[in-house]
């Protein structure tokens, strides 16, 4: 539902007991005093601190920012338990809509030139650089890091976009090539994107980990349905604002927040999803096994989770290769 | 500026067509609409073409050329040690654009020393950081592309349509591509930790000044080398503007040094004992001299030299597109292209049809002011080059080939040569053997694929070739037989940073572009 | 050339022997021509020429006499504030509106503007041949000066070229009037359905051999209508046809051409491909409706130096 067509605004959903924007509850329980403290410039001790405008966090699907079709939200807290925001709790229908959006975006995105995709990923880095402060704040709150530690995570995430941007027109030269078959044939193998990839973002790294699983999926031309880390979804939802302003076509990346298990199950079973990255199930072996089993139904490519992934170290090509097919073309040679 | 002369095609048509079907007209006798009012008025005065394009000049004011430029060494502009300068002129008007420092041995020495000092820290940077400098340069090139396109057309004489749509976008794309390699060298197939060579001496030609700069500097920097680049004597300006882009990008001083000058400057640079790598694009003659110069040293050498490409048109070719490819192959950039399709090899069964179509198409080429957005063919880059083209074309005529050009009025100042077609050319003619580097196409015919390949390969050069046929297996067979570094099928003159470029035989050695282009700048 | 239509096999051999079309190269050429910069006097010339080439069209189920009369008035005097604006080339309507259009043009003082009528079960063309011929005769009898017919794409795509050719020939016959004159025949390929450029070239030659006066891209009723590459290819076809057969045939791109910028690109394409012999409403038309107002606004801009707006052109 878009902001424009929504009649009742934020006070509408009844499942929002601590709705901070409700005029009737300006100081509702959980409303973070810390946020008001962040506001710069209340220099005179006598002046009242300006009340900050809180952001309504929304999903990012098909290039738009809908709420969950279910109307549900859940409370997101910082590492000390203080309330930060109400995030949408996506339903299986939200997952379905996101798959439709990702599928619709696939022909255009996979058909774009590698140079074009590379420039767009680089543009994402440029846009992120300008919002470095915002993400540092969000990552610090989400992960309980000091500002320097959070800033390091954000910087690394920006650089990770740049790293993957450069791969767009190189991966084919590294993993594809001419095959010297024994006969009068031209024979060439090239990597191609597999299609729509469901991505469960890692739970232990709300932003660097998130970027590290999205970028390798889309740089090669796949489109993605991403389930944000359940406990720390805010940096992911904010990333949607960056993606929306980076020339990335709508639907290439779709961001859902909510219960990982709840959203992942329909995605893993979805017959129009081609692959799934289980990074977000790293701490739940039972869930990972269930999802992999469901994925077997249409033989999705599955990237199994690793409990020991260090998101700060430089990635190799593994996460790209996991979501690439190899196509080999034969053609006779003769007069 | 000249207008295309449609009369040319009218004269060569054998039969006047029947104007419409006998049963016409359904349209009533009285002229309707514009025909009765303004439509009969021509876009220009009577006698000219019906639809003449008014001048559409790109504004010169977007570029600010200083009256004098120094050498860019160690992050700063400085005069040549001996104070020598030379003038750079606009070949379309012979107007002096600026005075540029003539670098001498002392200046080369200073530049190499600056590059050497910069090499240690630059090569020690993490690849990801080097990448970000190159990405910055790519983006600034994109941002300033209009300014640089105008500058390039002024200094080189090429049409703004080409500098705007080809030179600048490609120059930025090469930087963008190689930026991405800087932190991925371990994946390039040259071992886990390939090392840069050191200081690269780079000498580039005048035909694509900024694009050739990007082909040289982008891979060199990505791999961790530092450079001293000498632009061509007649086209130094865009390289000097590039120095300003390095400044805007915050590139550490000494990583890129630009030393302008003539052939002696280039000779001093490649001979300098402090350089570890020599990369040259230009004539085969100079390339051979450089190869002799570096003989016996440990300098790694890559050369991208001349060509005499065959453009082979089989009888089952998509003819309209083949004609476009032939025109693009030889008249793009006034034919100042080392990989130009300067020899058309056309199968005899379609030769007349192709030549008729080619003449008709050539008559629509618009020769003139490089800054006019509708110009197809601009000015020849220098008096010297014009003399060389003229001499070879005259030799073609003297040796018995038949010469044809569409009627076109060439401007009275500047250096101009009309698009020219030679038919009845044989392999023995000079115009079939020597690189003309101008808008002159030599047409030869063949009867069988084997004959086409034999003639195509019968040259000391081996840079590029073209094949036109709708049959895929024949494309691949022909490509297999051709001794050329780049083979275009059903297209011509295509370049991409991901695609290696370079020649066989006397067209040079080494490849530029893509993963392959990294090798020239790595210790592998 | 006559013998190539002697049999289905002969016609197929001929059409499949035409030079192929490389799509990438065709697109590149069309795009390159699209970069021509047409300014000042050339632009003024092009705008008036484009207006004079418009087949001002309404082909809706909801068409009514009132709508057709309004269209005719607009075609006769496109810019009510500036009588120097050229008239359009023709008014294009369904057959049942032909008489209304003829009357309306007379009333508007422009009886010489021809009326074109789509016929042959436009736009699908899925009717028996006698129905198509009756449709055509009906339109001609009502006074149509030009007939825009559709080819049977089903027959064409299944290789029944002779059938397609024969239909065109018979529709051409049906265009004859009792006095021996005939309505001018435009043949629509619906290039969006032919899919390949090779097919467009074959359809062009097929139609020209069968007697088409004009070849036309599209009905305007499918997803893909006139495009610059398709039109370029058809211009090459009429150019080559005149060179080899000696008969000049016109070209009409239709559908999707809405802006002055687009129209000027098409005129550049005509100028540099078929040549200036085609730069006339007798040989090149635009099937369009909303294009006219954009041309008029640009024309006003050239006259006044100010950008115009939709309030200063008429909506009919």
Automatic annotation (TrEMBL), chain A:
This one is known as Aldehyde dehydrogenase
**Domain of life here?**
Bacteria
Spans through the membrane: none
Q: Which organism is it from?
A: Streptomyces zingiberis
Ranges of Low complexity compositional bias?
18-34
Its keywords, alphabetically, are: Oxidoreductase
Aldehyde dehydrogenase domain residues: 69-302
Q: Where is this region: Disordered?
A: 1-47
Q: Name one Pfam family in it.
A: Aldedh
TrEMBL record, chain B:
Q: Which UniProt keywords apply?
A: Oxidoreductase
What domain of life does the native source organism fall in?
Answer: Bacteria
> Which intervals hold domain Aldehyde dehydrogenase?
79-523
Sequence segments annotated as region (Disordered) = 1-43
Statement: the UniProt record of this protein carries the keyword Glycoprotein: no
UniProt cross-references to Gene3D superfamilies, sorted A to Z: Aldehyde Dehydrogenase, Chain A, domain 1, Aldehyde Dehydrogenase, Chain A, domain 2
The family database entries (Pfam families) matched by this protein are listed as:
Aldedh
Query: Catalytic positions?
Result: 304
Cited InterPro entries: Ald_DH/histidinol_DH, Ald_DH_C, Ald_DH_CS_GLU, Ald_DH_N, Aldehyde_DH_dom
Indicate the family of this protein: Belongs to the aldehyde dehydrogenase family.
> What is the official name of this protein in its record?
Aldehyde dehydrogenase family protein
From TrEMBL, chain C:
State the top-level EC class. lyase
Among the GO molecular function terms of this UniProt record, one is: deoxyribose-phosphate aldolase activity
Reaction catalyzed: 2-deoxy-D-ribose 5-phosphate = D-glyceraldehyde 3-phosphate + acetaldehyde
Give the Enzyme Commission number.
4.1.2.4
- Keywords, alphabetical: Lyase, Schiff base
- Pfam family, any one: DeoC
The record's annotation in Gene3D superfamilies points to: Aldolase class I
Involved pathway(s): Carbohydrate degradation; 2-deoxy-D-ribose 1-phosphate degradation; D-glyceraldehyde 3-phosphate and acetaldehyde from 2-deoxy-alpha-D-ribose 1-phosphate: step 2/2
Cross-referenced SMART domains: DeoC (SM01133)
Family of this protein: Belongs to the DeoC/FbaB aldolase family. DeoC type 2 subfamily.
UniProt-recorded name of the protein:
Deoxyribose-phosphate aldolase
